[in-house]
Amino acid sequence: MKKLLPTSTAGSLPKPSWLAQPEVLWSPWKLQGDELLQGKQDALRLSLLDQLQAGIDIVSDGEQTRQHFVTTFIEHLSGVDFNQRKTVRIRNRYDASVPVVVDAVARQKPVFVEDARFLRQQTTQPIKWALPGPMTMIDTLFDDHYKSREQLAWEFAKILNQEALELEAAGVDIIQFDEPAFNVFFDEVNDWGIAALERATQGLKCETAVHICYGYGIKANTDWKQTLGSEWRQYEQVFPKLQQSGIDIVSLECQNSRVPMELIELIRGKKVMVGAIDVATHRIETPEEVASTLRKALKYVDADKLYPCTNCGMAPLPKAVATGKLQALTAGAAIVREELSR
Ligand SMILES: [Zn+2]
């Protein structure tokens, strides 16, 4: 029988200090050339081991081979000039210096396929691989070529689809698209964002997921959260259309967030990765706190569709904190699994 409440993480986990400076985003690599390649593989194996030892069921690469969940993918594409930089407002929240789209975008070679194949060789557990979503990608660039957010997103969707099909062939069980932009640009999400996402999943037979969160626990995000009021109802804007989509799994932020849990009812029928670990605090949840969040979610998600998860990636956290949170997630899920078996 399939295990109930299989645990997983949203994606990124801390990197070893010999590979990149811990607790920061866009941390530069400390190694170069062949040493860097070897170091990334070693880090991937350590990250996998941490997950397995903590009892995580659906494992990932911990995003050890990428500097950032969006930019690293874009760096592998042609048509984007990384020497030209323009300052744009990311998700209407903070300014960042971003590369410029100067020509038609294309994927000349696979981006993460070798890494996924390597992860597949290391474990027989189900593996999940994260890619940026098309809308989140366009929001991290200055477009001087297409001059249409929709058209650029569509081009990225086609590129992501090429990558996803090869990841599936490499043995990935769940392909996840990270779309924090879905929490910001509601009209665009409904007009073409979800259609672009579905284009990225075209022809896939493995499971597909979309991760929609309120971002890493960095200051720009926590400041933004302060402005959102006592109830965060952003999900309400996009869930009805997402429920109608072909995406199998929706990954959400639920722990310590002000998202009313009943909004999950709007995606009834989908599998839900319920964020039961807050990534914006160093405080490690108790197993009972995790269990309490999962019990609340069970009112709106059938038990066989509930996947305990983290709110977002844990790359910016100290390693000991991240490991403690993985253990808390496993222990909390075990409590509820035991209750369900009675
Ligand atoms: Zn996230």
UniProtKB/TrEMBL annotation:
Its EC number is 2.1.1.13. InterPro entries: Met_Synth_C/arc (IPR002629), Met_Synthase_cat (IPR016456), UROD/MetE-like_sf (IPR038071). GO terms for biological process: methylation. It comes from the Bacteria. Its cofactor is Zn(2+). Keywords: Metal-binding, Methyltransferase, Transferase, Zinc. The keyword Flavoprotein does not apply. Residues 5-329 form the Cobalamin-independent methionine synthase MetE C-terminal/archaeal domain. GO terms for molecular function: 5-methyltetrahydropteroyltriglutamate-homocysteine S-methyltransferase activity; methionine synthase activity; zinc ion binding. It is an enzyme of class 2 (transferase). PANTHER family: 5-METHYLTETRAHYDROPTEROYLTRIGLUTAMATE--HOMOCYSTEINE METHYLTRANSFERASE. This is Methionine synthase. It comes from Parathalassolituus penaei.
